[in-house]
């Protein structure tokens, strides 16, 4: 499969795009269109830390909402500095 290149809003540069949409709905489409594989990998590491530190349970709807909010802040916050 050929990789696709996108402008990653997280990294603020051209980067390899994801192979498929990993999150559902409009937010998933936004992530697929504007967040690179590298940036998503950085989020996955942060996600693991948050789940462990906050003792989130992914079976709990409220915990999933908390994690989604953190994901949006992490991936799309203009104030965040990512290297």
TrEMBL record:
Keywords: Iron. One of its GO terms (molecular function) is iron ion binding. InterPro entries: Fe_traffick_prot_YggX, Fe_traffick_prot_YggX_sf. GO terms for cellular component: cytosol. Pfam families: Iron_traffic. GO terms for biological process: cellular response to oxidative stress. NCBIfam families: PRK05408.1. This is Fe-S cluster protector protein.
